[in-house]
């Protein structure tokens, strides 16, 4: 019996077809990981590792003895004292509240506008939809710093033709005042990202089967009825996705207020949460508290996105 088993095992090892199948099986298992290896390495180095370092730094405290730390530098575990210091910063808390107000208004307007543009461009009567899609998407290709500089020419008195024309008519406009600069920033963000969100909605609209439109046409539904009863419910996933992206982007607002800060005294160094963390790190040289602020910003963004997704899923169910 052992001789038969030995011959069977030896025959299986000597069978070229079976050994070739085993090699192909091992290759098929390893090939995806070989192809994904460079991406995974970059993903870990540029995304996962910075998050881990930031979280770790937020629980540390660096003490320097001497004016420039020449007498020694010590690092100790600080527990939650950095988070407590960040939360005691009234300007940081005010910046989060300011961005919540910004998001409620700006995100709502932008999502409504991109949805309207997408529905108009995908309607049967739309002319040159490809051209207008490219035109509306074009602002997204302009970096935020450049877009803010361009818009500042319309905001700064003496440079803005809008302010000059309004002044000639007896209307005083101040786009950079304490009560208006937030909405001037919202205008820049809306101009930049509406086309990007519109393209996501357009992609969802194009995924709707043509049979659905034919059935609606047979039932006598007009364009408005089709948009309300068919298109809007079916593009709901795209609207949820764009809203979540916009919520996260709101708390990451940085470039626009930083550029406008040079022309608007109403914008201080902690006007937005990201500006506050940046100032704490590079103006006050307190990287550990800045790391705690960054973690808090991420937690708030996650919490708002989670609440929004729960509310939308509950409404759908």
Short description:
By secondary structure, this protein is mostly helical.
Describe the protein's architecture and organization.
The protein has 317 residues and is mostly helical. The chain is 74% helix and 3% strand. It has helices at residues 2-14, 16-58, 81-88, 90-121, 129-137, 144-155, 161-168, 181-206, 210-218, 223-234, 236-251, 255-260, 273-282, 287-316; strands spanning 60-64, 73-77. The protein has a two-stranded antiparallel sheet with strand order 1-2.
List the helices and strands and how they pair.
Elements lengths: L1 H13 L1 H43 L1 E5 L8 E5 L3 H8 L1 H32 L7 H9 L6 H12 L5 H8 L12 H26 L3 H9 L4 H12 L1 H16 L3 H6 L12 H10 L4 H30 L1
Antiparallel strand pairs: 1-2
List keywords for this structure.
317 residues; mainly alpha; 3% strand
Which ranges are low-confidence, i.e. pLDDT below 50, for 5 or more consecutive residues? none
Overall mean pLDDT stands at: 87
State Rg: 28 Å
The helix/strand class is mainly alpha
Question: Going across the major beta sheet, what is the strand order?
Answer: 1-2
The dominant shape is: globular
Sheet-strand content, in percent, reads under 5%
Distance between the termini: 65 Å
Query: What oligomerization state is this entry in?
Result: single chain
Q: Please report the number of helical segments.
A: 14
Number of strands: 2
Helix and strand sequence = HHEEHHHHHHHHHHHH
The percent of residues in helical segments reads over 70%
